[in-house]
Amino acid sequence: MDTLKIQPVVLAGGSGTRLWPISRGDYPKQLLQLDDELTMLQRTAVRLNDTRADDVEIQVRTPIVVCGEDLRFLVAQQLNDISHAPSILLEPVARNTAPAIAAAAQLVGTDDPDTVLVVMPSDHIIADSARFCRAAAVAARACAAAEIIATFGVRPTRAETGFGYIQRGAERSGEVFELARFVEKPDAGTAEHLVADGQHFWNAGIFVARAGTLTRAVAALAPDIHRAVEGAVAARTADGQFLRLGKDEFAASPSDSIDFAVMEKLRDAACGIEAVVVPLDAEWSDVGSWEALLDVLERDDAGNVSRGDVVAIDSRDCVHLSTSRLVTTLGAEGLVVVETPDAVFVAPKSQSQRVRDVVAELNAQQRTEASSHRKVYRPWGTFESLDTGERYQVKRLTVNPGATLSLQLHYHRAEHWVVVRGTAKVTRDEETFLLSENESTYLPLGATHRLENPGKVPLEVIEVQSGSYLGEDDIVRFEDVYKRE
Asked: 296 pLDDT band (50/70/90 cuts)?
C-alpha cells in the first residue's frame, strides 16, 4: 500500500480584534478556549490526526506552526500542554498569509517536495472533525497525483456578507471540482443570489498542495515573495523548537494574502498548476463576530449562549460572557454582553462586527485595553495589575516552577516584593538569598535584580512599584534565559 505523507501547517498569527475584549493583541482569539476543553489553536493542531483512507496509508506529521515572535512562548506552551512538540516557525515581521505559507512550503520541500501540506488557520471552529478529515483525505490524494492546489469551499447556510465566496466549475473527479472564480465579500442581495444557485461556497482559507507545487506556484506568480522567502528560509536559525526565519530577508517580502498572490491568478496563468475546490460540510465557523457564537456554541432554552457567572432573566437570543464578575440581563433580546476585569462590551448582536470600531477608537486614545489584558503572559508566568495611582503601581506576579525572570534594572522605579505563596530566590546586586511566605525585600532604584522560583509550586509575589515612571519599557536586561531583547 502506498504512503501519503501529510504535513499540517497551522497559521497562528492574527490580532483577534473581532472578539474584543476577551481577544486582544497580546492574547488573540486562537489562544482562547471557546467550544470545548481545548483552545482553538490546540484543536487545530490535532484536527488531522484521524485522517484515513481505504486504499492508501496516510501518515500525518507533527504540525508546523507559523506565528510571530511576540506569541511564541504562549503558542509553545499550549501545544506542549497537549503533548505536541511541533516546529514553530517564527515570522520576524507580519507579512500576511502568502509569505507565511511559502516559507512553510520551502522548509518542507527542501527535504521532501512531494509531502502534501494542509494549511489551516488556527482560529476556526470545525464541529464535525470526521467530515473534515474525510475532505482533507480527498484533497490530499488529489494533490498528490497532480500539479494542483486545492481549497475547501464551505457549503453556505445563509447569505453571509462577511465572507468571500468560491464558485465551483466542472467536476474533475469525485468531490473535486475546478475552481471557476473567487468572489469578494458581496452585498446582501448578491450573497442571496450566490447561495441560491448552489455553485458558490464560502472561502474557508484552508489550502492543500504538495510542498513543491506551492513553491513553484509562488515562484511563478509572486516572484518577489518567493525570492524573499527563499532567502529567509536559507538564513533560518534554530532555537530549541523555534525556527527563526532570516529577519532582513523576510522583511523584504511584499505583504499579501495567498488568495491574491497565487490562487486568483492560477486560472489565467501558464505555470501548469491549477486550482480546484473540495466542498466541505463540517459545521465550520471562522468565529468572525460575537454573533457567530450563537451558531457554534450550545444555546439554552431561550436561545442564549452564556459562559461564566451569568444570570439571564426573560432574556432571549443573547451572548453573555463573564470572566471575573456576575453579569445579569433582564428582558434583553439580541444583545452581546462581554465582561473582563478591565472592560465591558455591550452591543446588539447585529452590530457586533463593529467591535473593530471600538478597538480603533481605543487605539486612537492610546488606551492599553485595546491590545493588552490586565493579566499579561510572559514566558516565566504572568503578572496582573491590581492597583495604580500617581507614582505607584501594585502587581501580582506568578512565576512558574523552575522559571526565572531576566537579570535587570530600572532607571525610574524602585520595587518592594512580598512573597505570598511559595519560595523565591532573589538576586539583588551582589546578594543572592531566599524568601519564604510572608517575607519581603526592597529593590532600590537602579539595583540589578532577578526573581526565580526554585520550588515545585507556583510562586506568587505582590510587587509594589514606586517612582516617576512605571512603564514596562523601563527595563534594562543583562541576562535572559528566554533570549528576549
From this structure: confident
Structural contact between residues 377 and 74, judged by C-beta atoms closer than 8 angstroms: yes
Report the pLDDT value the prediction gives residue 160, as an integer from 0 to 100. 87
Residue 97 in contact with residue 11, Cβ under 8 Å?
yes
Distances (CA, A) of 168 to 110, 152, 265, 345: 32, 11, 16, 40
Q: 458-467 pLDDT, tens per residue? A: 999 999 999 9
Residues 261 and 218: their CA atoms lie apart, in Å, by 8
Element (H, E) at 230: helix 223-234
In the structure grid, which three cell numbers stand for residue 387, read together? 492597583
Taken as a whole, the chain contains a residue count of 485
Q: Output phi, psi for 260, to 5 deg.
A: -75, -40
> 134 pairs with which residues across the strands?
none
- Residue 452: what are its φ and ψ, rounded to 5°? -130, 155
CA distance 206 to 259: 10
Q: What is the H or E stretch that residue 97 is in? A: helix 97-111
Supply the pLDDT for residue 217: 97
Q: Greater confidence, 54 or 235?
A: 235
**326 burial type by CB count under 10 A (0-12 exposed, 13-18 middle, 19+ buried):** exposed
Across the range 269-281, mean pLDDT stands at 92
Q: Which helix (H) or strand (E) holds 81?
A: helix 72-81
CA distance 360 to 363: 5
Residue 318 banded pLDDT, cuts 50, 70, 90:
very high
Cα R_g (the chain), whole angstroms: 25
What is the spatial distance between Cα 225 and Cα 106, in angstroms, rounded to a whole number? Answer: 12
CA distance 377 to 375: 7
The position carrying cell 523576510 is 250
SS3 147: coil
Instruction: Give the phi and the psi of residue 321 in degrees, each rounded to 5.
Output: -140, 125
pLDDT at 17 over 90: no
Please state, as a whole number, how many other Cβ atoms lie within 10 Å of the Cβ of residue 215. Answer: 22
For residue 485, what are the CA distances in angstroms to 235, 406, 451, 477?
20, 11, 18, 8
Of the candidates 35, 12, 9, 1, which has an alpha carbon nearest to the alpha carbon of residue 103?
9
Angle (CA) 45-50-56 rounded to 5° is 120
The dihedrals phi and psi of 440, each to the nearest 5 degrees, come to -145, 170
pTM recorded for the entire structure:
0.91
Cα 45 from Cα 64, distance rounded (Å) = 9
Q: Name the nearest CA neighbour of 441 among 422, 419, 457.
A: 419
Across the chain, what does the average pLDDT equal?
94
Contact of 350 with 291, CB cutoff 8 Å: yes
Q: How do strand 3-11 and strand 57-60 relate by DSSP bridges?
A: parallel
End-to-end CA distance of the chain: 50
